[in-house]
TrEMBL record:
TM stretches of this protein: none
EC number, as in UniProt: 6.3.5.4
Pathways per UniProt: Amino-acid biosynthesis; L-asparagine biosynthesis; L-asparagine from L-aspartate (L-Gln route): step 1/1
UniProt domain Glutamine amidotransferase type-2: residue ranges: 2-220
Keywords: ATP-binding, Glutamine amidotransferase, Ligase, Nucleotide-binding
Name of this chain's protein: asparagine synthase (glutamine-hydrolyzing)
Amino acid sequence: MCGIVGFFTPDGLADGRQAHDLVVRMRDRLVHRGPDDGGSWTDPAGIAFGFRRLSIIDLSPAGHQPMPSADGRYIVMMNGEVYNFADIRAEVEAVRGPLAWRGHSDTEVMAEAIACWGVEEAIRRANGMFAFAVWDREEQVLTLARDRIGKKPLYYGWAGDAFVFGSELKALWPFPQFDFGISPEALNEFLQLGYVPGERTIFASTFKLPGGALLRLDRQAVRRRQMPRPRPYWDLRQVALAGLDAQASGQTATEEELDAVLRDAVARRMVADVPVGAFLSGGIDSSLVTAVMAAGSASQVRSFSIGFAVKEWNEAEHAQSVASHLGTQHEELYVTPADLIGVVKDLPGILDEPFADDSMIPTTLLCRMARRSVTVALSGDGGDELFAGYARYAAIDRWLSHRAKLPGFGRSLASTLVNSLAGPVGRVSGTRMERRFLLLGSLLDHGDPDRVHEMLVSQSLDPGALLAGGGDASRPLTDGTFNLGRSSAIDRMTFIDTASYLVDDILAKVDRASMSTSLEVRCPLLDYRVIELSWRFPTDAKCRDGVGKLPLRSLLYRHVPQALVDRPKMGFGAPVEVWLQNELRDWAEALMSPEALGRHGLLNVAACRRLWEGFTQHGRGWNRVIWNILMFQAWHEAMQSVEAARSPLVAA
């Protein structure tokens, strides 16, 4: 687990020393991702690579990067882990015969695999979480690649005439021509969802490489500033459709298949030359991963959980019960006001762009606690999206079923009535009730599960109203990018969440929180074989009678008594509405003052103030978009002090 950064200039490096010094400055903004070693490499042809290393496999200098292939043709950087590197090593030797390996790192194996088969064929063989940058010295081509689901981040874009890329946005900022102009579309979508979905970032000039994709760039493309489209080598939509076809032909998945794949996925993720532990919330997913670890480990597994003083948010007691049953060496941390205030103030520096998932707070604290004892932790991320675990899936499916029983004229009449009441109800009871009326009206009107789901997961149904210049109603989840097409309502919703919320919220959160403290987090449920297998389970085999994740539950009951883990899902969030009226009140008041809201000219000050005052002064209830605004404000304020930001942050 590491950090990579680099740039590609069209006319070569006129001053090699200057290029080296620049890439080192960029590289060392990622020291938290790789405190164990730093490397750099430049080529007069116009390429500069920078690398920070967190040593996990092969702790010796033989794992140093950037790493050349043995024949010298390829220079390789990799952030992440390839779990089947031993298998690939054997394949390489089967083709080329025994090699004089320098060490036993997965990066060296991949460098030789690339030399053997080329970048794309080598990447296709890799089972892992990774972001690659590969320079082909013979063809003068740069290739970027990201793992299938998008576990590891990779940003890229133009900075003047140069192409820049890196594991985090902050690594790109020292480049002299980096463009800090804010994307209005990204800000609109952030205010709606709490994260920036898809390939966009908050900066108009910079993008995210999609999961399962490669980007190939030669000198001519850079000289013309012609950005090629990322090309998929693995496509989640095609995986989902292939799974639905398999179901239709009778090739449905079985629990025994899932059990075998999951055992192997966990075992591969326990391989490390450093201590390994597990995140344990006491829920289905983390308990299953921890149970499989404990069953396959020769030593006692270490587990970690977070607790809250607010009872309805606290899962620590459940985690302790599961840990006791599995016999793990368990450690828990209850969040104090001092912990809270410290983390909230750290968030803008950790995140690089606005991000409003409040579970970032406990996730960061959990990672900091775990890092005191281990360097790698396994988590249960992915279970809810792949196996229909969120309560909203069953709820929307149930609502659609009820809607189908109403006559058309009745639906139309009821929709008109409910929509007409939404505004008056909102003015009296707050935006939460207004939102519920609009959601019901939409459901009655068209019954499109994609649109109803988008409304349900949005923090604001009209984010443009919060922008100084206004804005069109944002529909980022239903514009076709994340649309599966033919399938059940639950399949379509799980696909949208996997392609958007899982990748751009949950995985981004876990990566930034863990890497901020130099901890590697591995997710067995996101092994691509598990993802592919999940789509061969029919909907009613995943979710039935309002209960989701049925295959995972069944496997977990083999290890843990059902009564110990069967309870309503709590989620891994934080009681921010409580904190904002207590420990975080002064912090929030400062960011939501008219002066602070108006400082950059991007937000509608009056609209934002109405939301804040409605919550704090008029008792109109909590609105989650307030946290989105606060996170944008905190991020923007922190960006003003960024050393490389020489121009004001304004709309691009």
